[in-house]
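User: For my dataset I need records formatted as: sequence, then structure tokens, nothing else. Please produce one.
Assistant:
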Amino acid sequence: MMIRVIIVDDEKFVRLGITEGTDWEKVGCVVIGEAKDGEEGLELARKEHPDLIVSDIRMPRMDGIDMIRTLREENLDVKVVFLTAYNDFKYAQQAIRLGASDYILKPFRDGELENVIRRVLGQDLLHKGNTGGNDEDADEQLLPLKKKTADMNRYVQAALDYIEDHYREDGISITVIASAILVSEGHLSRLFKKDTGISINTYITYYRMRTAMRLLRNIRYKVYEVSEMVGYHDMGYFSNSFKKLTGMTPSEFQERGGEIN
């Protein structure tokens, strides 16, 4: 089944360039509609229920930030990739905190949007570098994370979904997760450890660091950007935590092309 996409941008020729200049079939997607601002994008999303929105941030009437904020308030389950100019990076950071899946700095190179879409949809790793495509295996050996399975307790499955959706947020913790899925902390803690082998706090840290490792392999991201994107707003703390788990600082990891000793 093809992934359904809508494009939101106030410039007609940008929309056309994205629609016509992207190999949508290659990434398993089809464009089902376009909108010229956040208001139109929101109405289109409500009507069509797309899987992915590719949107500019700065637009008249309703910008991309307000659009995604409303989407989240209405619990519309859709992934969002933002297009933004370098000078609007702080807007992109805000978008990430609101649950945007990723963003691309304009002007972007040929193939860059396709790569981001693959990453957002879980179709591929970010950047294979010179590792022969074994990055995921190496990451899993270093920071093992059990994926959600049908035989897990339903509260554990709900907690894993919550972590995937909210790992970027400052306050994520077992207290917040337990409250969100309506279970006691103690019960959730026992169930989670039984099904995954690690505590929720450790899982959150591993999830953030595994995501950071994938992002750092994409050399267009700076370390401070990655720190923000995975929920660490203190880059020093992020770097120390990263080194403690991987044996390298984020900068060293990126310089080595994401290879793990």
